[in-house]
Design brief:
heterodimer, A: OB fold (Dihydrolipoamide Acetyltransferase, E2P), 5-stranded mixed β-barrel, two-stranded antiparallel sheet, 1 helix, B: alpha/beta
Amino acid sequence: MSEADFTVRPTTGADGPYWRALAEGRVELPRCAGCGRWHWPAVFRCGECGSWDQQWHAIEARGTVFSWTRTWHAFDGSEKIGVPFISLIVELPQCGGRRLLGLLEGDADGLRIGAKVHARVAATEIWGERIPALSWTLSGETA
Amino acid sequence: MTRFNARVAVAGVGLRQYKRAQAPLPERGVLVRAIVDACEDAGFDPADVDGFVAYGDDKNEPVRLMSDLGTKELCWSSQVWGGGGGGIAAAFGNAAAAIASGQANAVIVFRTLVQNVSGRLSGAVMAHHLNDHLLGAGLISPAQPCALRAQRMFEHHKVPLSVTEELVRASYYHGARNPHAVSYGKELDLDAYRTARWIAEPFRLFDCSRENDGAGALLLVSAERARDLKKKPVHLVGVAQGAGKGWGDLLENDDDYASAGFASVARRLWAQTGLTPADIDCAQLYENFSAQGIASLIDHGFCTYENVAEFVRFENLIAPNGKLPINTAGGNFAEGFIHGIGMAVEAVRQLRGESANPVPGARTCLLAGGPGAPTVSSAIFSNDIIV
């Protein structure tokens, strides 16, 4: 997968490095060099300790399902995903419990809050744009 | 205590609601109609309105209304941040702040939505919040983040799914008895509710609010001035807006994720007014989606995750005798949905005794804004001076 496969759009926030890493197939999240707190959404300055030094770390995209919804209504823009599809919020214990989003691919048997999942980087096509995103798979074991 | 009570009152209301794409005028024309309605309701010259407040990214900048209204001078023009209905009650706080501080004398709170101009409401709301994190997960419509929160509430916090049916039934019960409601004369068919098509699990079709075209306007003046106008004043007792730490536009990383986001707003509202949930006689409870209405009741302290099924029972939620009649005009589910402004109008009508579903002797009404929004707000109105 190369950056050319994706549309990486400008952001007004502090999450630029997330998108650049994702487009290269890596998941990176920021951690405050001042107090060690994982921040997500990304911040420019740590509101807890005041540090401007936010370090990006490659992380393993593994976690547990925090919540999920299966969409059945074909909302405008989602045509290329195709209904039904399942959206996940995944909690990452290795990153202070911060949560990432994504779609579930593969078998949904055993989908429940607390189920273990892992992800690969894939593209979600919305309104004609290929957005880099996490595509989660159930790991077949529960937390 | 910054109580607005006895200082600012709603003196007039206007509501023009149409089925989608059936508004007889373009958007600004519908809004002017609703504002003039509100002024006529109060017996007030529209030219003397000198302030305007909207919410939810309304597209009608007040300065553009001046020629139609004959506005002598525009003294206050503001809008509450946020794309959703979370700011509805905060709009009354803005208006009251303007009046109480002497920056304006007569302020209209309004919301307008005619879809050939502003597009589908759900799309407009979401456009405010969308980013590629959400899009990458297929989250395009407000129904989906709300569904994620609802799933967490049902599955993790063990709230019984049946409570949403009680809430939706109550709104439809009132709507069926309100000649101005879209659902007038139509009771909710429970079988249809339970088997309706899925939108985003756990929501089926009737767990979702409607979308209508129209405009609503409410005229606020000082309580002193309101006494000399045509209708009985309805006082703004208190209002709070905002978000607590750990809540906001956080890519679904909010603390207390399954809630509706009102914890800090409700705490400040009760502290500011000295009232408690037990003092509230009826509520206009913004329900974009059924589960968020439930979460809003929990956040405001009417019930808890543990006892929600005891409180959220159909009989408890309907006029005239329920413990807390909610959405007495039918609410966003059954009356119609112009981004919630109809609920504010109903709060006033209920406290004047003009509701189609009167709550006998009601003195207080809670207006709880759009639940689950990053910025939320709530207000309490009363037909009495509560000291």
